[in-house]
């Protein structure tokens, strides 16, 4: 029999949790300073966590599980999160992991959560039946160049040295800053595409996705094209626009985050995706960062394929399950 005891003093658990978190992010390829930033972000949420120790039949502590409840989804619905689930290796394979997962599901459902999420740094069979909400893909680039005066990717289609595999032939591609006249239509299209990605992943309804899209774009680009550290550019081939790229430099220490890369439908399948990745990598290095990171939603097989062949490995996987959980054998 497994017992769960809620902890009032989280200090001992937190020390072990932060060690595991650092090791996981380090193994996933985050730069050291980015690892510390990630840990700081999680540490800030510790006061909101509910943490329980698992004890076995002999009363020995065999593991722990920590969950949070957040009212950050559109419409005010609650989302549960498994922040930590650790089983002592000496007790692995004895059903304690399944018991801890079930405890987290039941506790969050009882509190009114409609879904439960978990963030994985490596494959975990315990959550194999959870749906993939998205992945974070990452690639280490060459040593960063001196920061440029303009944070937009340079008008140079050649890949930066050491940026990795490339197709045998790459179409010539240039990038220029987006104009104010282009920004409005791009913003509308970007919000619509974001909604479509969220709905395709299965994590939110269309109505919830629309609320989230409006909120996230407003938070990320409060000053539009003038928002610091953001580069929204138009990709051109032979002087004609063929797509857009949106980067945020210094998203984490040493890390540029790619929020979107869109190639117009009529130009797809012609190698512009690969050429665009080279532009993004050059822009990352020019801004002084050495790592480029993208998120890809579950179900977006085209983007996943592009990141695969471009050398971007999945370092975080975000999974979820609806709540309450289904009872085995239920119709």
TrEMBL record:
Example of a GO MF term: acyltransferase activity, transferring groups other than amino-acyl groups
SUPFAM superfamilies: Acyl-CoA N-acyltransferases (Nat)
Compositional bias annotation for Low complexity: 143-172
Domain of life assignment: Bacteria
Stretches for region Disordered: 143-178
InterPro entries: Acyl_CoA_acyltransferase, Bact_Acetyltransf, GNAT_dom
One Pfam assignment: Acetyltransf_1
Keywords: Acyltransferase, Transferase
The N-acetyltransferase domain, residue ranges: 1-153, 188-328
Gene3D superfamilies: 3.40.630.30
PANTHER family the record matches: AMINOALKYLPHOSPHONATE N-ACETYLTRANSFERASE-RELATED-RELATED (PTHR43877)
Protein name according to UniProt: GNAT family N-acetyltransferase
Species: Streptomyces liangshanensis
């Amino acid at each position: 029999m497994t017992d769960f005891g809620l902890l009032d003093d989280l200090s001992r658990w937190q020390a072990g949790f932060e060690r595991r978190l650092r090791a996981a992010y380090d193994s996933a390829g985050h730069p050291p300073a980015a690892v510390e930033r990630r840990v700081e972000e999680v540490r800030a949420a510790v006061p909101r966590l509910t943490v329980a120790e698992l004890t076995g039949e002999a009363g020995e502590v065999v593991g722990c599980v920590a969950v949070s409840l957040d009212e950050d989804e559109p419409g005010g619905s609650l989302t549960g999160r498994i922040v930590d689930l650790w089983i002592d290796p000496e007790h692995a394979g004895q059903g304690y992991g399944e018991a801890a997962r079930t405890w987290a599901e039941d506790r969050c459902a009882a509190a009114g959560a409609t879904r439960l999420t978990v963030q994985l740094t490596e494959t975990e069979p315990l959550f194999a039946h959870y749906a993939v909400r998205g992945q974070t893909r990452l690639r280490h680039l060459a040593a960063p160049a001196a920061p440029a005066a303009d944070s937009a990717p340079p008008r140079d289609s050649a890949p930066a040295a050491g940026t990795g595999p490339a197709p045998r032939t790459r179409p010539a591609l240039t990038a220029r800053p987006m104009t104010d006249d282009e920004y409005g239509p791009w913003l509308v299209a970007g919000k619509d595409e974001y909604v479509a990605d969220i709905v395709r992943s299965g994590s939110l309804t269309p109505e919830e996705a629309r609320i989230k899209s409006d909120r996230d774009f407003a938070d990320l680009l409060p000053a539009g094209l003038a928002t610091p550290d953001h580069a929204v550019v138009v990709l051109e081939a032979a002087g004609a626009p063929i797509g857009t790229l949106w980067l945020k430099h210094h998203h984490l220490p040493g890390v540029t985050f790619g929020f979107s890369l869109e190639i117009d439908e009529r130009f797809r399948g012609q190698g512009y995706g690969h050429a665009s990745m080279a532009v993004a990598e050059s822009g990352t290095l020019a801004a002084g960062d050495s790592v480029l990171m993208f998120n890809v939603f579950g179900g977006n097989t085209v983007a996943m394929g592009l990141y695969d062949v471009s050398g971007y490995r999945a370092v975080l996987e975000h999974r979820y399950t609806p709540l309450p959980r289904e009872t085995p054998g239920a119709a």
